[in-house]
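My current task is to audit a protein record that another person submitted. I need someone to confirm that the token line plausibly describes how this chain folds. Take the sequence as given and treat only the tokens as open to question. This is what I was given:
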Amino acid sequence: MNRGIRNNNPLNIRRSATRWQGAREEQKDKSFVQFKSMAYGYRAAWKILQSYYERFSRQGKPFTVRNIISRWAPPTENDTEAYIIGVLKLGSLGGKEKLLPPSNASGYGRLSRMIAAMTTIECGIPFGQVDMEAVYQGYLLAFPKNKKKLEEWLNEEDEYFDW
């Protein structure tokens, strides 16, 4: 079983001083956070993306897949360009397309596709086998006040389900 799946950390979030909600009490992996469930792993990813949005806004940088992945998977550790191309293709996204912040329920569709594509790259599982229910539950754990707005948006948007 892949490390990210085993750790319930599908985007391979590294251990740090951050005390993540839903982290396992005992952390046996020396490098990556271990979560109690996939939903908590995705919650952490949503929260990190929100912090990226806020940082990019302060720096005057657009919130795009290219900028997100360049920060998430820096060239010192990854083939960043290949990662970006993979996410764009898998998620059917545009590289320079400005994304809405994670805290905006209307941005969920594109960002959830990006997260699914990142999961595919990080864990090596097929795009169509990413647990989108866990992505959704992670979003609700990260932004519980958006539940009603997100449900309304999902009921109106066919594009979310059309992949």
